[in-house]
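seq as requested:
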Amino acid sequence: MSAPDARVCNSVSRAELERRWAAARSVMRDAGLDALLMQNSNDWLGGYVRWFTGAPANNAYPRSIVFPAGGLMSTVGQGPFGGVTELDGSDALAPGVGRQLFTPSYVSAAYTAGYDAELALSEIRRLGCRSVGLVSPASMYYGFGTRIAADLAAAGVRLADATEPIDALKAIKSEEERGLIRRTAAMQDAVLAKLREWLRPGLTESEVAAYAQYLGQQLGSEQGIFIGSAAPQGQAAMFRPRWQQGRELRAGDTLTLLIENNGAGGFFTELSRPIVLGKASHEQQDLWAALLDAQRFTLDLLRPAAPCRDIFGAYNAYLRQKKMPEERRLHCHGQGYDMVERPLVRQDETMAIAAGMCIVVHPGVKTARQFMTIVDNYLIGADGPGECLHRSPKAIIELG
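struct tokens:
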């Protein structure tokens, strides 16, 4: 629980941040890097800046970080032309930051594309960096990344991609992080429990999603996504975004809702159970039993050192044996500051499972008549997954 006068909703300890900084600097020493440079613009798949600074990027506004091999970080973000704030690294809202630089850039105004890069480059020059590692260049806006690459090349500064070793650090959760993740999962259990008491025919899908979001924020969540829909039995109730959630719930409907919001420390987990406004059909019960088996099969494969591509191959072989549709997207992956983070359990992933990872397992099946999934998070221990972090019963919720 935060102190009454605390400003940060979901903070991590200074000791945790310093652990991350030390680990990142060890990577930098091994790679001969003077600084890391990253940019994120959202808090759903933009967890790098939060991992380094404890603060998220939001609202498509870019937030850039120059993380030196020694000393305090510099940040670049939304604000007035020429804005600079000097700090000593102890500010609770900017721990480890020595300089904050500001510029009013907007991706909707294309001519501002280079503004953030100019400020980041000025810090790289001020620090005298001769080698810079980019962290997740895929997360950077095009105008930022191209300007950085061109200017550093012209200045003879070595540019490297440091994403892989940073991803490996991010994927393994510390004791503090694991505790925060458990609290996030418990918050989502509470949301689902309160939601099921409130659900009734006559509500729109959007009202259901809005109420779930409200419940989460009342319990400390900052934000997240609540995708889903309702449909009569015999039709697929798919994951749908808010703009497609205009249908009114009716007696007998099946409701699919994904609760994927962040919580303690800013960490994401996700939870989903099928909800029937009546009694589940035999067809639904049969599919649910098959999904429970598929989740258990996957969990049995999540052992430390197991290559993700091998797990994925075994899972699809299992689905073929059971005459279920093969997985062609993603049914199992890491989670933390990103809704989806590495490792991805599929054929293109190079990582292996390791103790300390937070893994979500969500097998799903779509047919012409129904869509169903089960979604739960697990922490990987020395011998594989521990107990399910979500305590919501693994059963179809029947209302009425």
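The two ends are 37 Å apart (CA to CA).
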